[in-house]
Write a structure and sequence with these properties.
The chain is of the alpha+beta class and 543 residues long. It has 18 helices and 18 strands. A hairpin with a 4-residue loop joins strand 12 and strand 13.
Length: 543
């Protein structure tokens, strides 16, 4: 029987061993005269290592971590990222976390920062945090005390990110909510609502926020003036940048500054948009330019925070609409790294809404972009999604549970609809558009209607089929696991979507546009008449 560790246990152990995986011992080497146990082999890892702890009483069996080497948008159709499960281990006395569940993740080898989001089900513990090569950190998300405790070699940088998140959230917390309405009194017709509003007026303004009604014309200029008169340096997150950067290298300093400015800008943008038509007139235009000029230029370190890119993207779209100028024209004025991300983001986000102009937009974007990973995304889109490209070959599952090779659709004009159970837009599209067109054309031997469900659970798919709200029993009803096969190939992750295939098994159209029954029926008839020779082939590109 081993002796008790005794009062001098902490002095007899060396806590310098790196964290390991699973059952790896983290505590240091112990004296054999105390335990009589041979020390376990230490785990050494040169890459990224996250060690996470949550109180066991509240902790889930699994945390879900998503990471991106390159992030334009957290969406399967743009930059989907890689999601991995982190399975809980029970903490123990020797590692000082006996009452905690422990989750460990060793990240991929990388030479540039990656971005990480961590969630427990639908709740995010961290979102879009940057993780640099060889970062190692221990984080305790203490749900009992509300504290986040951070340690390890990279703790300073992760503390800065956590502090910045808190400061930006506090800014939102202390900002009065807005409601744009032409008739505020209409809300007060309900006695309960009126009573709650009156009580809100009685609360002390020093500690309470109060809903502000913005009349479309009368009060927007006044509100816009108040917003623009608050200088960026009046935001706590901006004032905190120097202290948060202290002790960090230049790359991490750049990231912290970008994230602070991006957070403030993203907070102000929805409010700026309420008065955007006034930004071209004085005094708003001068204040607006002064506000933007206060923001430093970023990207010189070869790193652009994706939240900053999103803020710049929203500004770009707002300016394009104001000046009636093309997005690409404005983007070309930006530094190369930012320009490429803005262009790539625009093409990838809007491609499935474009139809007649999609080829020109895609090719124009490819002529501009120089960043290799963004060009790769656009080339992949070109090769898979342009009219006339060969359709996907693969096997799905039919409603009887049998494999269904898609190649057997060759020789037909295929009308394919993608849906998930519980999607109200999918119900509306089927009931108002697809169903009446199917009833009209179901006897046409040259046209087949196919639905593809993307629920993770086949039981949900079967429930939706039985309801009759999403698909007709006489259609070819198939299922594909989300993020795989056909769905992954065409980057389909929002619903409903429509896809059309010609009789020679070539793609005619992949779109997120909504159609009337008349328009859809006309399109199907036109597609059914297309001569294969009329289909466009891929235009050779200048690289």
């Amino acid at each position: 029987v081993a002796d008790s560790p005794g009062a001098d246990f902490l002095h007899r152990s060396s806590p310098s061993v790196p964290f390991g995986l699973r059952d790896t011992h983290r505590g240091g080497a112990t004296r054999s005269d105390t335990f009589g146990i041979k020390p376990r082999v230490k785990f050494v890892e040169d890459g990224i290592l996250l060690h996470l702890e949550i109180p066991a009483v509240d902790a889930p069996d699994t945390l879900w971590l998503t990471y991106w080497h390159h992030l334009l948008k957290e969406h399967e159709e743009v930059t989907p990222g890689t999601t991995v499960p982190l399975v809980a281990e029970q903490g123990n006395f020797f590692e000082g976390n006996m009452d905690y569940n422990v989750y460990r993740w060793i990240g991929p080898k990388t030479v540039s920062p990656i971005y990480v989001s961590l969630r427990d089900g639908k709740h995010y513990l961290a979102r879009y945090w940057a993780v640099f090569p060889k970062d190692k950190v221990r984080i305790r998300f203490d749900t009992h005390t509300g504290k986040t405790l951070i340690g390890g070699p990279s703790s300073k940088f992760f503390k800065a990110q956590a502090t910045l998140d808190r400061l930006l959230e506090e800014d939102v917390f202390n900002t009065a909510p807005l409601m744009v309405t032409s008739d505020p009194k209409r809300m007060m017709k309900d006695s309960l609502t009126a009573s709650l509003y009156e009580k809100s007026l009685e609360r002390p303004e020093s500690v309470s926020v109060r809903l502000q009604f913005i009349l479309p014309e009368a009060e927007k200029p006044e509100y816009l003036l108040r917003l623009l008169q608050k200088a960026p340096l009046d935001y706590e997150a901006i004032r905190a940048i120097p202290s948060l950067q202290d002790g960090l290298d230049s790359m991490r300093q750049s990231f912290i500054a970008q994230r602070a400015w991006a957070g403030v800008l993203n907070s102000a943008l929805p409010r700026l948009k309420q008065g955007k038509r006034h930004l071209e007139s004085e005094p708003y235009s001068t204040l607006y330019r002064r506000w933007l000029q206060a923001m430093p230029e970023f990207g010189e370190k070869g790193i652009l925070d994706p939240i900053m890119v999103q803020a710049k993207y929203d500004l770009l779209l707002m300016e394009a609409r104001q000046k009636d100028v093309g997005v690409f024209v404005l983007a070309k004025a930006e530094p190369t790294l930012l320009r490429d991300q803005l262009v790539g983001k625009y093409v990838l986000e809007n491609y499935k809404y474009l139809e007649s102009s999609r080829i020109s937009v895609l090719l124009s974007g490819m002529e501009i972009v120089q960043t290799p990973w963004i060009m790769d995304l656009l080339v992949q889109l070109e090769r898979r999604s342009l009219k006339g490209t060969d359709f996907y070959t693969g096997t799905l599952t039919d409603s009887s549970g049998n494999p269904y090779p898609l190649e057997q659709l060759e020789g037909k004009t295929v009308v394919m609809s993608f849906w998930v159970n519980g999607c109200k837009f999918c119900v509306r599209y089927y009931q108002q558009t697809l169903k009446p067109v199917f009833e009209q054309l179901k006897d046409d031997p040259d046209v087949v209607f196919v639905t593809v469900n993307a629920d993770s659970s086949p039981e949900n798919w079967e429930t939706g089929l039985r309801s009759g709200r999403y698909a007709h029993r006489d259609m070819i009803n198939l299922h594909e696991k989300p993020g795989s096969g056909l769905l992954d190939y065409y980057k389909i992750a929002s619903f409903p979507q429509k896809l059309f295939v010609d009789a020679d098994y070539r793609l005619l159209l992949l779109t997120r546009q909504h159609y009337t029954p008349e328009k859809l029926a006309e399109m199907i008839r036109e597609m059914n008449r297309v001569n294969p020779e009329e289909l466009s082939t891929l235009t050779p590109l200048k690289r």
